[in-house]
Amino acid sequence: AAPRPLAGRRVLVTSGPTHEPIDPVRYIANRSSGRQGHAIAAAAARAGAAVTLVSGPVSIPDPEGVTVVRVETAREMLAAVEAALPVDLAIFAAAVADWRPEVEAGTKKIKKDGSGPAPLALAENPDILATVARMAAGRPRLVVGFAAETDSVLEHARAKIARKGCDLIVANDVSAAGAVMGGTENAVHLIDRDGAVESWPRAGKDAVAARLVAHLAGLLA
Ligand code: C5P
Fold it and tell me: What are the tens digits of pLDDT across the range 55-88?
């Protein structure tokens, strides 16, 4: 039988983009496909974990053997994440929109009125990873963040660990346009709290997910 190193563990994964509505027909989003996060959720389920996947809007199928909670906005994602706790391991692979339109979208489309573009004021979204990583009570034993950077990948990842309070960052270089975000392959570096770095060769997102899940199961054991 396949090894089930996460048997008896509860795992939470966030995946996909968030959509932040401007009005009923427009939104702010990003190029995340959800492929890496979904692959991690599937790999964790195969490893025997009880997995909740909180996913933003994606066009890929739900992974097998996983409880999927679909959300649209960052604030909905935070609420769904909080509802899924407690867990042993939380992996934040979603590309959460940093900002949302400050004014809540109404039911009416914003019209062109000939006086130039409508002003779009933005408000900062909650940082879901930092919120969970800094929980006083009920913090998951292992909190893993992702970093999509286009430059100084390791430097930014180290700063991110300190800023967010997570245990590990999985950093990828998204500078090669389209190669990672929306693509099927990933090349990642793992950076821990002590600053230790492990760089993995480029591989399919499924292979990266399986290796990551095995690595995290080892840390939990
Ligand atoms: O700060 P930055 O967006 O680069 O951090 C990326 C990491 O933080 C990812 O793990 C992402 O899922 C998480 N994040 C989050 N909530 C936000 C922004 C980022 O959980 N509002």
Answer: 999 999 999 999 999 999 999 999 999 999 999 9
Q: Ligand 1: distance of its center to the CA of 2 in Å? A: 32
Q: What whole-number distance in Å separates Cα of residue 191 and Cα of residue 171?
A: 8
Prediction ipTM score:
0.98
How many Cα neighbours within 13 Å face the side chain of 4?
A: 10
Q: Which of 129, 143, 150 to mutate to test the pocket of ligand 1 (most atoms within 8 A of CB)?
A: 129
State yes or no: is 125 an active-site residue.
no
User: Burial level of 178, CB count in 10 A (0-12/13-18/19+)?
Assistant: exposed
What Rg do the C-alpha atoms of the chain give, in angstroms? 18
Q: Which atom of ligand 1 is nearest to the CA of 169?
A: 10
Q: Got the DSSP string for 24-86?
A: TTEEE-----SHHHHHHHHHHHHTT-EEEEEE-S-SSPPPTT-EEEE--SHHHHHHHHHHH--
Q: Name the closest-CA residue to atom 13, ligand 1.
A: 129
pLDDT, one tens digit per residue, over 91-113 is: 999 999 999 999 988 899 998 88
Please state, in angstroms and as integers, the Cα–Cα distance from residue 202 to each residue in 119, 169, 209, following that order: 42, 17, 12
Size of the chain in residues: 221
Residues with CB under 6 A from ligand 1: 14, 74, 92, 94, 96, 125-129, 145-147, 160
